[in-house]
Design goal:
5% helix, mainly beta, Immunoglobulin-like, four-stranded antiparallel β-sheet, 153 residues
Length: 153
Amino acid sequence: PPPLLEPLFPPQPGASPGFVERVRQHKVRLEWVRAEPAGLRGAVRVLNLAYEKVVSVRYTLNGWASCAEAAATYQPPGPADGITDRFAFLLPLGAAAAAAETALEFAVRYRVAGAEYWDNNEGKNYRLRGRQRVPPAAGPPQDPDSSAWIHFI
């Protein structure tokens, strides 16, 4: 089975107490991530400072020797708090994430009203590592005739 990306941070920061206050202070915060066969899916919350805004995720699989950026898309309806917006992203990791030794790092960028804000996990970046999935354990070998009917003549 293909490797699984394992977050080295709590994968649902948006579920922790005081999350909206952290968004208010820092303007942008990762809400959650989930590893999927297509890549890494997640959501970001931003403080609604202006109508026009751009949210993206910058990521690397090789320790920042190179990087890519994926745009996040607005997710209506907005959160019930009335002061934040939610954006969703998918990092299409493809074959590069198929290696068990994969190390993914990313940070979130929020551009609004001529300013730029980053969420880089307090300077540590958000990091995930590849972990080989354990194949399901095989049971004891079955005798092919064990379920056959026995016929007496």
